[in-house]
Amino acid sequence: MPDALMNDGAVWFTVPAVIGTIFFLLRLGFMLIGGEGAISEVELDSSGDPTESFKLLSIQGVAAFLMGAGWGGIAALRAFGWEWMPSMFFGVATGFGMMWLLILLLKAVHDLQSSGNITAENAVGTEGTVYANIPEQRAGRGQVQVVINGRQRIYTAISDAESIPSQARVRVTRVNEDRSLTVTRV
């Protein structure tokens, strides 16, 4: 095995393959355990455009290229029995393919992110149930349960008109300055 990786020009593929693989696996390990700067490849840049984060000449991209070019060149040279020059072209193509695959995978990881924040403004127009009695004409505060984006929330609520008893159905009409909701009976 060592002879196949070091003789007849194969060393030109072996060195980048080993260096790229070691560096790639170290970076992958740091990403999996959450090491310092682990997600730097998938963070947004200052313009907010997620596609700007997936550059070909990132550290991880160069490691992927070296790994792909090295192992692809060795495969072409040894397994396919090609001469050195066609093996080099195959290795370079494999390296670019690895960079492209890495970009696709990092973009897929980035697209998995979502915001779990639910704001009171999202409740306007939704229907809910009174959790604690709401006094009439802003004379006091009660509570309502509303479902926003599939998540149940309880908010402080007031009524501009009649009092509303517990378990009554209501519709949220607006969000007040104190983040309470104004509701009307349905």
Q: Would you write up a description of this structure?
A:
- The protein is α+β, with helices and mostly antiparallel strands and 186 residues long.
- It folds into two domains: 2-111, no CATH class; 120-185, Beta Barrel (OB fold (Dihydrolipoamide Acetyltransferase, E2P)).
- Helices cover 41% and strands 18% of the residues.
- The protein has helices at 2-6, 11-33, 59-79, 84-111, and strands spanning 127-132, 142-148, 151-159, 169-175, 181-185.
- It has a five-stranded mixed barrel.
- A hairpin with a 5-residue loop joins strand 4 (169-175) and strand 5.
- Helix 2 (11-33) crosses helix 3 and helix 3 (59-79) runs antiparallel to helix 4.
- The longest helix has 28 residues, at 84-111.
